[in-house]
Specification:
Length: 389
Amino acid sequence: MNRRTFISASAGAVTLPGLAKPTSLAEHRIDAIEYRTVNLSWPRHVGRNSSKGLHGRGPARHTVCLLKTDQGAMGWGQMQGNRRGIKAQKDQVIGKKVSELIDPAQGIRQAAWHALDVPLHDLAGVILGLPVWQMMGADKPQLSKVYSGMIYFDDLDPEDNPAGIDKVLENCAWDRDYGYRQLKVKIGRGNKWMPPAEGLKRDIEVVRAIHASFPDCEILVDGNNGFTVETFIRFLEGIGDIPLFWIEEPFHETPVEWRALKAWLVAHGREKTYRADGEARPDFPVLEQLEKDRTLTMRLNDICGYGFTKWRALMPTLKAGGIAASPHTWGSALKTVYTAHLAAAYGNTPTIEGVTSADSDVDFGENRIVQACLHPSSRPGFGLGLPAA
Ligand SMILES: [Mg+2]
């Protein structure tokens, strides 16, 4: 298995996307919506973060949606919501021309197709013979760095015999070996799982140990809203001059708290560290307000939950305001690929959240990490191969 790519040993034949020759979207009508289960499990057990308990081994049976046309084209991908939601729309989708459902220049034509946003983008790319990033208007892909988003509190487990910091370093080593040169470290052990002072001390020790062991890796930290301004500043004081690429969700976004933290960061030589928010229960008016004066500098809404088409509309606005974007992908390696195509087209993403899937039956094809950047496939659609049924 080549661990430097997103591919791993495929369990069987895969259906690679593509038609014999490109056609127009108006020539195709949807004639079937189907479902398939794919394995996207993670390479290791993932433990706790500041707010949630054990995360487990990832989605081993993940339902995806297939759209087939009367001309023999097929697009597939992660759907938003569940089958029931799609079933309710089936009558409005079946028989429609693909051109009535999606405009390659903008995305889905009605917010009502939100659940099928990603499969429709894949299908349109397949029909047009273009990778999604190119279909969205780019001549060549703009490449982004990619970080491992899988460094959790694995020092704390198993509960009866905690593994300690070495376990976290072992995970970092695996991710570095896989190709990552950025590591996002979960912090906030004192929020729930350890006495506050002890938890803060451990967070600091973990970040210090990672920095010492992997000096060629950039560090991002994610508090999952488990801090106050005061405890977060104590964390920053504790790590001294270790550089941080970004700070994510130290607390739930409020103007008072983020402005206080920003002031501290600017006063202490950390003004360039990205201030990232918008993943958990995003408060959009507050995010927009804080982006206006650049209190926040990085937007994180989920690539699928917020919506691929809505992200396409949001990107130029963020870019014009000097705000970077890194759509949240945690959970599924497919979402990492969708974000890679979005980033490749719009070029406003300094780094992409990498979710690794080992032993997946999906063929990730050319979507892979090369020299610490995530390259999107040049194949039609998202370039993801679906395992044979
Ligand atoms: Mg997060």
